[in-house]
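ENTRY TYPE: protein
CONTENTS: sequence, structure tokens:
***
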Amino acid sequence: MCEIPLRVSPPQEKALLVRLEAARQLYNACLGEAVKRVRLIQQSRLWQKAWKVEDKELRNTLIRRSIKRKVGP
């Protein structure tokens, strides 16, 4: 890995830092929402039932169905 510092003026540095912080906050918000949705799906009865099924095709069908119910089309 090679790190090369950017040569920017103070106003450019300020703008970059503001944009990077906004991107970080957006990323974390999206990640938090995704984690919350996954946990809700995994708590569903259909998901719990699916993981007990031996047949892989049926299990995958039930898992997809549980995801569609909680997340939508």
